């Protein structure tokens, strides 16, 4: 593996990668031409300076993962990465404590007028009486966004004796209750908060959240803290509120354009400006680097996707549980791919049993990657590729599986001329098994070289198959049979056989040609599985 670290990181970050003695780690101080270094790189690690755009990715044909040491990924073209099957990871939460501590520090700073006090004393002025402040105790703190940082703020604000209200449509009420936060709607946040702090990402819904209308319904004298994204605030509206006294004070650590060279906030004495210091602590930078290195390493070694911004993420525990089914999904997709008569138009993926209760996005992507079976398609970009090709995907989940299996995955492929279907499960934790094909029960291993044979249900077919394989010196590892007269896919009087064989690709081709000459055999497909 080759890891290109394009910007400076801590020694502890390097140490994580260097635990793998066979890995080549190229650090920023050794890079003279980044494009050339990426030609054979498996991973790219950046902070905020390097622009990992589509043009740069053109020079990285082997790249599997881009790691961003931090939260914002504005410098990474996630769409271009997804199309190339590259995971984009960031490190949310690693700096949560640092940002939360800065948030509380800025609140205390506003409450006690610390900037004015220190400036006056530096000028030899003892202005104790004019600098009387207020306490945070018993004040209402409105927290917009109850992710990791928002919750860390809540825990610390409780120690100050503040009343906590919060808005986050994506947090479970039990989590809010456990942290002493009362969930309310966004207008209530605006109306009741003495202090208002923002901890949400930038989306079309959150951009300009603090604007003329929202400020108009706030308490007179409200104090606003923004350590999230500068775009959350309409600057002109906040400046007007600060100057009119409607907003008692603001503390801003982030801005629409950084570094801040010109600003309408300059010269306003009730606004505190800091140069994006939220995660700028020794401890946070160390934690961010270590976390990112561990995430990138886990993906390169075990395909565990954590904190990805362009594909669903799983914890290591979640991944361990569903990994066998991700593998099964890919095998089932390969097995059934190209089995439909005509061009594939849509597919259905059904999950039943325990499988249906967990995260299935990567399982879906693995199915798609298997069906498409293209070297340029993997479980990262499979959904995007399917969408580009006009293939519709429908998913269905049932908590209870039939037939006694703990979890069953079923795949149905549709074309204008017909359909093909199959179901499968994992036995003993690591054995992928086919359970049915086109509605006919037939248990077979989903490994190695398989022959899927449709034949007329007449005497002598099994023997003839065995004879043909024997004549070509091909060993049979497993022979599974199924029959049905009610299947919609298989005409009445036909049967199925799935034969696992041991043979070279050339010999497989000869065997398939010979079997197709047998009168009772309607069709033969050879499928090569890992």
From TrEMBL:
Its EC number is 1.1.1.95. Keywords: Amino-acid biosynthesis, NAD, Oxidoreductase, Serine biosynthesis. Residues 450-529 form the ACT domain. It holds the Pfam family 2-Hacid_dh_C. InterPro entries: ACT-like_dom_sf (IPR045865), ACT_dom (IPR002912), ASB_dom_sf (IPR029009), D-2-hydroxyacid_DH (IPR050857), D-isomer_2_OHA_DH_cat_dom (IPR006139), D-isomer_DH_CS (IPR029753), D-isomer_DH_CS1 (IPR029752), D-isomer_DH_NAD-bd (IPR006140). SUPFAM superfamilies: ACT-like, Formate/glycerate dehydrogenase catalytic domain-like, NAD(P)-binding Rossmann-fold domains, Serine metabolism enzymes domain. It comes from the Bacteria. It catalyses: (2R)-3-phosphoglycerate + NAD(+) = 3-phosphooxypyruvate + NADH + H(+); (R)-2-hydroxyglutarate + NAD(+) = 2-oxoglutarate + NADH + H(+). GO terms for molecular function: NAD binding; phosphoglycerate dehydrogenase activity. Pathway: Amino-acid biosynthesis; L-serine biosynthesis; L-serine from 3-phospho-D-glycerate: step 1/3. One of its GO terms (biological process) is L-serine biosynthetic process. Catalyzes the reversible oxidation of 3-phospho-D-glycerate to 3-phosphonooxypyruvate, the first step of the phosphorylated L-serine biosynthesis pathway. Also catalyzes the reversible oxidation of 2-hydroxyglutarate to 2-oxoglutarate. Belongs to the D-isomer specific 2-hydroxyacid dehydrogenase family. This is D-3-phosphoglycerate dehydrogenase. It comes from Terriglobus roseus (strain DSM 18391 / NRRL B-41598 / KBS 63). The lineage of its organism: Bacteria, Pseudomonadati, Acidobacteriota, Terriglobia, Terriglobales.
């Amino acid at each position: 593996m080759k890891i290109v670290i394009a910007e400076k990181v801590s020694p502890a970050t390097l140490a994580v990668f260097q635990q793998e003695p066979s890995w080549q780690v190229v650090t920023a101080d050794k890079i003279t031409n980044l494009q050339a270094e990426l030609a054979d790189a498996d991973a790219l690690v950046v902070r905020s300076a390097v622009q990992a755009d589509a043009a740069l990715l053109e020079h990285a044909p082997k790249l599997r993962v881009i790691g961003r040491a931090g939260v914002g990924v504005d410098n990474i073209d996630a769409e271009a990465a997804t199309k190339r099957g590259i995971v984009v990871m960031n490190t949310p939460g690693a700096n949560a404590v640092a940002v939360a501590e800065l948030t509380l520090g800025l609140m205390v700073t506003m409450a006690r007028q610390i900037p004015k006090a220190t400036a006056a004393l530096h000028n030899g002025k003892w202005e104790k009486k004019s600098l009387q402040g207020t306490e945070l105790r018993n004040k209402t703190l409105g927290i917009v966004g109850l992710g990791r940082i928002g919750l860390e703020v809540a825990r610390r604000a409780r120690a100050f004796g503040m009343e906590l209200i919060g808005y986050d449509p994506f947090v479970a009420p039990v989590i809010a209750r456990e942290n002493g936060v009362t969930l309310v709607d966004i207008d209530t946040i605006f109306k009741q908060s003495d202090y208002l702090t923002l901890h949400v990402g930038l989306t079309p819904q959150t951009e300009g959240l603090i604007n003329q209308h929202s400020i108009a319904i706030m308490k007179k004298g409200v104090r606003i803290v923004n350590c999230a994204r500068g775009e959350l605030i309409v600057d002109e509206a906040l400046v007007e509120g600060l100057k009119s006294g409607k907003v008692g004070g603001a503390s801003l650590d982030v801005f629409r354009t950084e570094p801040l060279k010109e600003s309408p906030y300059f010269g306003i004495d009730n606004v505190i400006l800091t140069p994006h210091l939220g995660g700028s602590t020794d401890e946070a930078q160390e934690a961010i680097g270590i976390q990112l290195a561990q995430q990138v390493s886990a993906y390169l070694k075990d395909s565990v996707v954590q904190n990805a911004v362009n594909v669903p993420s799983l914890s290591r525990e979640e991944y361990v549980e569903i990994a066998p089914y991700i593998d099964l999904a890919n095998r089932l997709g390969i097995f059934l791919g190209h089995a439909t008569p005509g061009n594939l138009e849509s597919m259905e993926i059904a999950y039943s049993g325990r499988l249906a209760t967990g995260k299935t996005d990567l399982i879906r992507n693995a199915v798609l990657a298997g069906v498409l079976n293209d070297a340029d398609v993997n479980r990262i970009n499979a959904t995007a590729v399917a969408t580009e090709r006009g293939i519709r995907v429908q998913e269905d989940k049932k908590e209870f599986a039939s037939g006694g299996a703990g979890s069953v995955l079923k795949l149905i492929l549709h074309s204008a001329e017909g359909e093909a279907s199959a179901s499968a499960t994992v036995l003993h934790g690591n054995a992928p098994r086919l359970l049915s094909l086109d509605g006919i029960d037939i248990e077979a291993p989903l490994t190695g070289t398989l022959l899927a044979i449709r034949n007329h249900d007449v005497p002598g077919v099994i023997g003839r198959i065995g004879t043909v394989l024997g004549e070509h010196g091909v060993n049979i590892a497993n022979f599974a049979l199924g029959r049905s007269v009610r299947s919609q896919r298989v005409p009445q009087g036909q049967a199925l056989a799935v034969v696992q064989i041991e043979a070279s690709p050339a010999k497989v081709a000869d065997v398939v040609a010979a079997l197709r000459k047998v009168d009772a055999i309607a069709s033969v497909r050879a499928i090569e599985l890992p």
